[in-house]
Amino acid sequence: MACTHKDVVFEANANGWVPSGSRTALSQHQEHPARLPAVGLGHGHKPSGGYVLASDRDDEKDGLCQAITPGVLKRGVTYRVAGWISVAAAEEEVGNHQIGHPVRVSIRLGDGACAVVDGGAVWAEPGRWAEIKGAFRLRESPRSAAVVHVHGAPAGVDVKVMDLGIIAADRKARFSYLKDKTDKVRKRDVVVKLGGAPGASVRVVQLDNGFPLGSCINGEVIQNPAFVDFFTNHLDWAVFENELKWYWTEAQRGQLNYGDADRLLDFCDRAGKPVRGHCIFWAVDGDVQQWIKDIGGDRDQLMAVVQDRIRGLLGRYAGRFPHYDVNNEMLHGRFFRDRLGDDVAALMFREAAQLDPGAALFVNDYNVECANDPNATPDKYVDLVRSLQRGGAQVGGIGLQGHVSNPVGEVICDALDKLAATDLPVWITELDVGEPDVALRADDLEVVLREAYAHPAVQGVVLWGFMQGHMWRQDAALVNADGTVNDAGQRFIELRREWTSNARGRLDSDGQFMFRGFHGTYVAQVTTPTGTKMLKAFTVQKGDAALVLDMDT
């Protein structure tokens, strides 16, 4: 979807840039047409080729700035930052084929203490243009001029900026587009057929949607009747917030605690909810328990406890968890790889696949869908998956955690498109949408859920909690502490209702009744003119041809 001119609230003028930094120098250039990128997500047109180069930078904060016309930016509006960024290699980096640097776009507000709002980030490489796809929202309308600031690369690295702009997100237009996309991705034609009974009445009721929605749970929330009520009535899957993590099951070496996980698993079994296994390992140093860090220098001993963890966990629960997050957040941590070598990541997958061959083994990480983290770009995530696969890892899915704020649908979709190139299913595994204003939170939640539901690569969404006072992010609740459902929770319920197909009608002269329904399980009832009733359960799955439900068989 290309943006319209009325959506663009700021377009950088090549002559309007000013340097930031005591020695930073700016100059204007024209890129060779052969080196221009294709049409990008932001402006919807081919890049102009004209760019500004910021050189002689002495600090990461140095770069280039341009003022935004006062009164243009409004509170509560979601804006996306669009444009192209590149860098020139520092002199000492020439010949290094792994050159690349983070470059950030910030919105500096002149009010008070000069607040700074993150406008996105890219991983920029010499000779290549990276598209900036950030987003932001202001809590208050600026009382004075705001400034766009491009910076972030190390000192000595020249930064190039082309066609930078700020665009107001048009959610209504996006949702309209997604409804057509959703119809193609999540629906199928169904023909109910019964011979010799033209005019018979037909009633079709959808029992479950084929697209699962779930939530994390813990030992405390399953004792809360209001939580349990919402969970059992509106959610399909579960994941344990902490109780399966290594630091929980073995806080002290050799002292195993699976009782908490067992109790949660029993609760989910009684409720009929499948559970994601989160997680076997965690790659980030700060989430590794101290006793493991204490033996980190002894390679053989560390490898032994890694093997014990895999065998102990999957040997105990084989067949109980349809998914496992194997080594959580590998884009942001290297604890085990730094001590045991890069191949240990693939080894974890290989060992897990042998012990529980029926489980889908996931990578899982954050910020990939947000375009604000140079360490977690979709391209880097795909590279990680490919690397694991080359090492023999049976990667069965890609987890996007989904800890988001002011989401933009086009940015999320762009990330999903890139991940879909792996041909692996994608799940949003830890969704929480942080926004103090609950009405805006409802809108933000709708953005993420509609993008996920409309994308063919996405196979499910799991919330990282939903009840106030029982969540990692307290401004993301769908249910208030007293059990009342807030605006965000109502929006969630409304979307689930929208994605449910019920149909009524009569068989035509050929004994057929056709409807188009969302994927999922159904029951059909046909009542003949003589009063005979016939019931039949069926499942609508993905398919191009119409599903024929013959009530005679």
Cα distance, first to last residue? 46 Å
The unreliable regions are none
Sheet/helix structural class: alpha/beta
Percentage of residues in strands: 25-35%
* Largest sheet data: 8 strands, parallel, barrel
Number of helices, counting only DSSP H or I runs of 4 residues or more: 12
Oligomer: single chain
Number of beta strands: 28
Helical amount: 25-40%
Strand order of the largest sheet: 15-16-17-18-19-20-22-23
> Cα-atom Rg, whole angstroms?
26 Å
Mean pLDDT, as a whole number? 94
Organism: Urochloa decumbens
Protein name: GH10 domain-containing protein
GO molecular function, one term: endo-1,4-beta-xylanase activity
Family: Belongs to the glycosyl hydrolase 10 (cellulase F) family.
Structure summary:
25% of the residues lie in helices and 32% in strands.
Q: Could you characterize what this model shows?
A:
- It comes from Urochloa decumbens.
- InterPro entries: Galactose-bd-like_sf, GH, GH10, GH10_dom.
- Belongs to the glycosyl hydrolase 10 (cellulase F) family.
- This protein is α/β, with parallel strands linked by helices and 553 residues long.
- It has helices spanning 171-186, 225-234, 246-249, 259-271, 290-294, 299-317, 335-340, 343-355, 378-390, 409-420, 438-454, 487-498; strands at 8-11, 18-20, 25-30, 50-55, 63-68, 78-88, 101-109, 116-124, 130-132, 135-137, 146-151, 158-168, 187-193, 201-209, 213-217, 237-240, 275-282, 323-328, 360-365, 395-400, 403-404, 426-433, 458-463, 503-506, 512-518, 520-527, 533-540, 547-550.
- An eight-stranded parallel barrel has the order 15-16-17-18-19-20-22-23, surrounded by six helices. Strands 1, 3, 4, 6, 9, 10 and 12 form a seven-stranded antiparallel sheet that branches.
- Helix 1 (171-186) runs parallel beside helix 11 (438-454) and helix 9 packs parallel to helix 10 (409-420).
- The radius of gyration is 26 Å and the shape is globular.
- The two termini are 46 Å apart.
